[in-house]
Amino acid sequence: MKATKIASIPIADHKIQPASRTQRPFLRKLNKYKWLLIMTLPGIIYLFINNYIPMYGIILAFKNYNYVDGIWGSPWAGFDNFKFLFQSPDAYIITRNTVLYNVAFISINLVLSLLVALLMNEIKDKVISRFYQSTFLLPHIISMVIVAYLVYSFLNVENGLVNRLLALFHIDPIAWYSNPDYWPYILIIVNAWKGVGYSAIIYFAAIIGIDKEYYEAATIDGASKWKQMTRITLPLIAPVITTLTLLAVSGILRSDFGLFYQVPMNSGALLPTTNTIDTFVYRAMIQLGDIGMSSAAGVYQSAVCFVLILGANLAVRKINKQNSLF
Amino acid sequence: MKQSRLYTVSIHSFFWLFTLASLLPFLFIFIISISSESSINAKGYSFFPSGISFAAYKFLFYDFTEILKAYGVTIFCTILGVILCLFITTLLAYPLSRMELPFRSSISFYIFFTMLFSGGMVPWYLTFTNIIPLKNTLLAMVIPGMLLSAFNVLLMRSFFMNSIPDSVVESAAIDGATEFKIFYKIIIPLSLPIIATIGLFSTLGFWNDWYNCMLFIDNPDLYNIQYLMTKSLTNIQFLLMKSNQSNQVGDILATMPTETVRMALAIIGLAPLLFAYPFFQKYYISGITTGAVKG
């Protein structure tokens, strides 16, 4: 005890001196790196305006916004906007739609794109494999506007291909754009058409990264193709699958605005099955001018997503630290 | 090991089905756009029209100014946007790749946090209409939400860290090069692949944008091509009403091959991307795969 006490005095003494000196090396370091720090400024300022000011704007959800008083002057509303939102039937419908569509999109796209990626690995001809990859990716690079045109060419009531084909079987034409019942299927198909190629290529890239020796050894041991896929390929790309699925799951309250707004052509009759949180926020803000409720819905979405992504990350860290996102 | 023939054939037929599914819709709208009106009246939209007619294209080219104007807006915003995006992203990503940078972890967190949390669309919209009044300006289709993605910054930062050896920077610093000089004489030339990749992503982002145009632009003269197409899908007459200098709109409307004009417009809006795609698809694919490897 005594010895440590004595020993600690000079150490403490020692600490004071460098402390006063570290100030200057720090400033010197700052000076040395000032140009590098200045280089980051445009980006930092941009993120401040584009991301951080809107984060502060969350207070809008707790205010009774009016254009005259502006963001700062408008009176506080407490949780009234949220109360109003959750008492309306919309809150349930948009949450249900967003979550269910995401569940369907995530699972269907996962299965399809893994299937494509696994089979693509069986194609030995590089040129042909390239050709397939670039055609599957084509739907991904076009805008949702074009997708809406493509869907329209199939679903137009009078002239659309689907109704004309139905007519061949003497089935009455279906008014696709005014009957909400069909839209879950339509949107799932459209989303898969647009997205499967993209994720398949990511999985395929992960698959080609696998060491070929595993397969050679397995072939020598007489493992079938199926065994090789399920016992080598899938386990080895599991980290990529986990990461991508996790990211998708944590965005379960987010939706692709274009898919739900453009493809149903903003048709009011389809809202029961096509309205998601994002389209709701847009319509409440632009068409109804209800700033309070639309920002309340936005906060609800952001807050849940934030909790989900932290939770999902924590869960994965528990299972396997390497797979975690951060 | 020899693969059985049936196995190979079934895999290829699976892929051919997929290929057809990816390509046929595009072919379909093209065929509709050149179908004759009588064919559409009789058979509807069909892969095998009974007559061919270029009336729709003639109609669109007759008064092409609206489409050209919209293309002008798109091209201007894309060029300006991509330049600014690359400028800001590279300048932000490079310093973060230097381990000894002061405040490095704070800045990284500042960037990363924007991926986790957002204020939502409403305050974002009000920021760019009230605080920074961009409504009905071309910059509204360049600045809000499109200039910098945290993901791209992280992607580029890891490229700098993995592909450029520290010794390169150190030796240049010993030779007395300033940080800016190191950046544009050494770092930029060594990072052209990642710059091209992010430039390509961002080009597609600006080219395909209609969301910002829908939110911030009320003036039809500033519509970009994607939003012009959006408007025309629900209401093809929109294209005419926009350019109704003439008082014979009624006449033109009566003669307009409505159904085919719509699809011809889609083809005109899609054409540049389709023609460019074979040339950039290779870079695009390698771009997504490098992005994915990082996660």
* Binned strand content of chain B: under 5%
Looking at CATH, the homologous superfamily of chain B is MetI-like
* Second-tier CATH architecture of the largest domain in chain A: Orthogonal Bundle
CATH C-level label of chain B: Mainly Alpha
Main beta-sheet annotation of chain B: none
InterPro entries (chain B): MetI-like, MetI-like_sf
Membrane topology (chain B): Multi-pass membrane protein
Pfam family, one (chain B): BPD_transp_1
Transmembrane segments (chain B): 14-34, 70-95, 107-126, 138-155, 186-207, 261-280
Brief overview:
The complex is a heterodimer of chains A (326) and B (295). Chain A is an all-alpha fold and 326 residues long.
Please give the structural blueprint.
The complex is a heterodimer of chains A (326) and B (295).
Chain A: H1 2-32, H2 34-56, H3 70-73, H4 80-87, H5 89-120, H6 126-141, H7 144-155, H8 161-168, H9 183-208, H10 212-220, H11 225-250, H12 257-261, H13 271-274, H14 277-287, H15 291-319
Chain B: H1 5-33, H2 37-43, H3 55-62, H4 65-96, H5 104-116, H6 121-131, H7 150-163, H8 166-174, H9 179-190, H10 192-207, H11 211-216, H12 225-234, H13 238-242, H14 249-255, H15 258-294
Task: Describe the protein.
The complex is a heterodimer of chains A (326) and B (295). In chain A, 75% of the residues lie in helices and 0% in strands. Chain A is mostly helical and 326 residues long. Chain A has 2 domains: 19-49; 61-323, MetI-like fold (Orthogonal Bundle). In chain A, helix 5 runs antiparallel to helix 11, helix 11 (225-250) crosses helix 15 (291-319) and helix 14 (277-287) packs antiparallel against helix 15. The longest helix of chain B has 37 residues, at 258-294. The mean pLDDT of chain B is 89.
Annotation keywords:
heterodimer, A: 326 residues, mainly alpha, MetI-like fold, 2 domains, 75% helix, flat, disordered N terminus, B: 295 residues, 15 helices, 73% helix, globular, transmembrane (chain B), transport (chain B), cell membrane (chain B), transmembrane helix (chain B)
